[in-house]
Amino acid sequence: MITSFHPPKRTLMGPGPSDVSPRVLEAMSRPTIGHLDPAFVTMMDEVKVLLKQAFKTENALTMPVSAPGSAGMEACFVNLVEPGDKVIVCQNGVFGGRMKENVERFGGEAVMVQDAWGAPVSVEKVKAAFAEHPDAKILAFVHAETSTGVRSDAQALCKVAQDHGALTIVDTVTSLGGSELRVDEWGIDAVYSGTQKCLSCPPGISPVSFSEKALAKVQARETRAPSWFLDKKLVMGYWGGEGKRAYHHTAPVNSLYALHESLVILQEEGVEKAWERHALHHQALKAGLEAMGINFLVDEAYRLPQLNTVLIPEGVDDAQVRSALLNNFNLEIGAGLGDLAGKVWRIGLMGAACNRTNVVLCVSALESTLARMGADIPVGKALQAVEAVYAS
Fold it and tell me: Sites of the modification N6-(pyridoxal phosphate)lysine (predicted)?
């Protein structure tokens, strides 16, 4: 007979999901009400305000999509890409490849700008792509590439697009709430994220925001968006107005309670303070890892503080170490993806998981595990290096 499922208590320091705040878990347990209930509609309005603060935007169309970050990505592309549109797509990891897939599925032509995994998107290559394809209508890129832990210069890339009269679609799934992101100031036209990274919310919701220029393109479409569920012309009847809502779909009520609470927590801390917290604990983690002789994949100038991709020491078995961390310490870190599988670990410091206790746990557990397996690493220096950062 199958009985109730009770998951083990883990510390999640992989690429996501991250540890969920106890306040957010409590919010999810509150009584479910109707998705058109006036009280719920009031909360929806507050979610939009809070998301604007997190994204640093005044975009009227700022809302959560009732599905994971991948649906937020699709919502941007399915509304903005029409058959025959030429889109410059930047790929420096797994998720740029998914952008290409979206462009092609919706009838667009993807012009690829390729950079090495672990390197940021080259602004100069993007300029060259626009020079070769002046009729390109959209530039799409990943701000924070989850597969590698690299940050690209979103402000500079958006400026290139603006100079050529093109819109921008930007993936901020891993950056929202964890590192600097300024949608309006940088001129981002369509942006999507996820709840399970630095917002420390369960997966299943995707915040998005569309600029007035992006909305104008949506309104001027000559063809209907090929997705009914993600068509912004339809869903805005539910999320767009203040107060009264037209039925579109049954929103995930309790999941939106969770998002609301996570955004309240971010508001209490302050978005800039959250960026600073992620940077501080990244420096401590970096010091501890480097004291063990563990090096980073990404150049320091472009590293994401919330997603640390490090090279696995020579002779160390990737899966064996991650299994030992999970079984002995209830600690999850992430494996590499694609060409980096078996070569790197991805260590997350996201949202509620980004704290001193977790940094100490990760460094001490990893040092203990590697030493027990006979890895050639210095022993006894890592925690001292961590504490030196916090003492400074």
Answer: 197
